[in-house]
Amino acid sequence: MRRRARWLRRAREEDERVKDRDLLKTVEEVFDPITMGHVERLIAKGVIRELRGVVSAGKEARVYWARGRGGRELAVKIYLSFTAEFRKSIRKYILGDPRFERIPSGNFRRLIYEWTRKEFRNLRRLREAGVRVPEPLAFQGNVLVMEFLGEEGYRAPLLVEAAREAAGGEILELWRDTVEQLRGIVCRARLVHADLSEYNLIVWRGGVWVIDVAQAVSHGHPHAAEFLERDIRNIASFYRGLLGAEPPGLGELRGELLECLKGSR
Ligand SMILES: Nc1ncnc2c1ncn2[C@@H]1O[C@H](COP(=O)(O)OP(=O)(O)O)[C@@H](O)[C@H]1O
Ligand SMILES: [Mg+2]
After folding, report:
1. Which tens digits make up the pLDDT trace of 141-197?
2. Rounded distance, CA 254 to CA 233, Å?
3. What is the pLDDT of residue 265?
4. Counts of helices then strands in the chain (DSSP H, E)
5. Does 149 sit in the ligand 1 pocket, CB within 6 Å?
6. How far are the Cα atoms of 27, 51, 143, 238, 243 from residue 215, in angstroms, in the given order?
7. Which of 12, 24, 216, 218 is the most buried (most CB within 10 A)?
8. Is the Cβ atom of 61 under 6 angstroms away from ligand 1?
9. Is 15 tagged catalytic?
10. Between 265 and 162, whose confidence is greater?
C-alpha cells in the first residue's frame, strides 16, 4: 500500500500522465487506414469506449491508455512498424512453436496479426495458470486490448524503476515474487517468456506482473531451453547487481525450471 502511494505520488509530480492532445496528434500520424479500421471495430463492439494518450512508443509497438466498459482503464497495444530485423526474429519465435505452424509466409500483415494473436493467447494461458499478467480482453488485427496496470492514466513502475526506490528487504521480496512468477510461467503455464528482464516486469498492487509476452514460446519450441537459460541469466544478473550478491536460491531455481521444461518433452 505504501509503495503504491509512493509511485502514484511521484508519477503525478512528474506529470507522466498521458495527454489527450498528444494522442490525437500521434493517432493521425501513425495509424494507417487498416489499423484505424481495427480500432473502430473495437469501438463499435463496445470494448473501447475512449482511446487516449500514448503510454509507450517502442520500436515495434505503441501502447495507449484507454477506457472500456464501465470506465475500466485499458492498455491498448498496437503493433505498427516491424523492421526487417524484427521480422526475422518473429519468424524464429513463431516458426518453432507447434501452436503456430501455419505461418503466412510473405504476407506481412498476416504475420503481424498472428503475432498479436500469439500475445493474446499467451496472456490468457499465463493468467489461467495463475501468473500475474494483465487480463487479455480482446484483439482485432494488430490491436490488442488488455487490463491497464496503473491508475488514473499513470502506469505502475517497471521493475527497473521500482527497484531504484526499494530498500534491501523490499528487493528480496521483489526477487522472491519474480521467482514465483517465473515458476508459474515455466512449470504451470508451460511456456518460456524469452524476453524476461527488468523492463518487462511491472510492480503493481504489491506484486510483480509480467508483460510483453508475444515472443513467449511453448516447451516444444526447439530453442525453449536456450531461451529459458537466457531469461534466468538476465533476471539473475539484474538482482545480483541490486543485492551485491547471488540472489538466494538461484541454483535450485535453475534446476527446478529446467526439470519442468524437460518433464514436458
Ligand atoms: N498492461 C499494461 N498496463 C500499463 N502499461 C503497460 C501495459 N503493457 C505495456 N505497458 C507499458 O508499455 C511499455 C511497452 O510495452 P511492452 O509490452 O513491453 O512492449 P514493447 O517493449 O515490445 O514495446 C511497457 O514498458 C509499459 O511501460
Ligand atoms: Mg517490453
Report:
1. 999 999 999 999 999 999 999 999 998 899 999 999 999 999 999 999 999 999 999
2. 9
3. 46
4. 9, 11
5. yes
6. 26, 26, 16, 21, 29
7. 216
8. yes
9. no
10. 162
Cell of 152: 488514473
Does the CB atom of residue 137 touch ligand 1 within 6 A?
no
Please confirm, yes or no, whether 22 is among the known catalytic residues.
Answer: no
Q: What is the pLDDT of residues 223-234, one digit of tens each?
A: 999 999 999 999
* Active-site pick, 15, 20, 177, 195: 195
Q: Which ligand is nearest to the CA of 160?
A: 1
The CATH topology of domain 16-151 is Phosphorylase Kinase; domain 1 (3.30.200)
Domain 156-263, classified CATH 3.90.960.10, yes or no: no
Whose Cα sits closest to atom 12 in ligand 1?
56
Residue identifier of the C-alpha nearest atom 1 of ligand 1: 148
Which residue in 22, 32, 177, 212 is the catalytic one?
A: 212
Report whether residue 221 contacts ligand 1, using a CB cutoff of 6 Å. Answer: no
**Whether residue 17 has pLDDT greater than 70:** no
Domain range annotation of the chain: 16-151, 156-263
Looking at the predicted structure, is the pLDDT value of residue 125 above 90?
yes
Atom of ligand 1 nearest to the CA of 213: 17
Which position has the grid cell 528480496?
172
Look at residue 189 and give its three-state secondary structure. coil
Distance CA 130, CA 82 (A): 31
**Residues with Cβ within 8 Å of residue 7, at least 6 apart in sequence:** 154, 156, 157, 162, 165, 203
CA of 252 from ligand 1 middle (Å) equals: 30
